[in-house]
Amino acid sequence: MSSVNHVTLNHGRERATVHHHPWIFSGAIRDVTGSPGVGETVAVCDAKGTCLGYGSWSPASQIRVRMLSFSPDVVPDAAFVRRRVAEAVERRRMFLSGGETDACRLINAESDGLPGVVADFYAGTAVVQLATAGAEFWKREIADALMESVPGCAGVWNRSDVAAREREGLSQETGLLAGAEPPELIEIHEGAIRFLVDVRKGHKTGFYLDQREARAAVGAYARGAEVLNCFSYTGGFGLAAQAAGARAVTHVDASAEALSLAKRNSELTPNPDGTAVDFLVADVFKQLRLYRDQGRSFDLIVLDPPKFADTKSGLMRATRGYKDINLLAMKLLRPGGILATFSCSGAVTPELFAKVCAEAAFDAKRDMQVVARTRQAADHPVALAFPEGLYLKGLILRG
Length: 399
Known about the structure:
Elements: E1 5-9, H1 15-18, E2 23-25, E3 29-33, E4 41-45, E5 51-57, E6 63-69, H2 78-91, H3 93-97, E7 103-108, E8 117-122, E9 125-130, H4 133-137, H5 139-149, E10 155-160, H6 164-167, E11 173-179, E12 186-190, E13 193-197, H7 212-219, E14 226-230, H8 236-243, E15 248-253, H9 256-268, E16 276-281, H10 284-294, E17 298-303, H11 315-332, E18 333-343, H12 350-364, E19 369-375, E20 393-398
Parallel strand pairs: 1-4, 9-10, 14-15, 14-17, 15-16, 17-18
Antiparallel strand pairs: 1-3, 2-6, 4-5, 5-6, 7-8, 8-9, 10-11, 12-13, 18-20, 19-20
Helix pairs in contact: 2-5, 7-8, 10-11, 11-12
């Protein structure tokens, strides 16, 4: 322990760390011994000087330390990081070995013991987002370990162009980290559904892998339905409905570029029932109001909006947004129809999201039933000691 710098916690502030929560906020720290560099490993001690473990130092962030090891005997080094990566990959082997898909999450940040590290795999290319000082510090080891441990990995692409890096005092970065450059578009599949993924410019690392199970759940209600897929991005839920035999699917998104890719994805996906497919570039809020004024209605509506709140400070605005779109959608839903509604705002708990939807139903004068609750797919696990890892929640409602 003497070879690394020390962080000592204030008296009574060690409880979360003892219980293996990975975040230590600046207000919990009494003093720092030495001058740790950005992302370097520090020993974390309680007020009595007992070592609780080791974490990465982030002097620009309110989350000043992110824990890597909760043992005084395990000091993180390059071999430790490579081992963590390999262990995370091994836990995902089942998702890629069954033939149902060739894309999944490989590393899910804190919940895999690698704070700030996200890695997704798309048919031969691993794409990483390194959102914290510690993740950036171990960047080379992470990339090398992915090349070594992921079967069929031809290259590692960096999509560290996230706003969270600014809070860490880091600049945004993209580019090749290891191996071969990815193709312009990577084709992946979920069962018979095909998607073209742009890992250079697409949302997140290029695609919403976290909604895989929810897409399948929505598809189960789509046969013969007229479907409205809001915030469609590159097709996602609408393609699942098409593959399941929907009568018609309308994709709505503000991005013409995303809808252009959605159209290509639709052409790749089987359409044995002759689903009529339309693509509409529009602001979803405005389009829902227009449909309301026109007296339009649908059998199945999907609401999968972008994040409305990053932090608790934006919670009020976020809840207003969620209530507004759900209220509008409920008014457009035919009797007995299905509304699949989601929130990826981490600050919005599942309980709060359900409450907002209940208030929307009351104002819409609709009696809605919950027929299913969804969350991020199983390759996006949540550590019990880190409930903040549960960011995606959904309700499938019948009206």
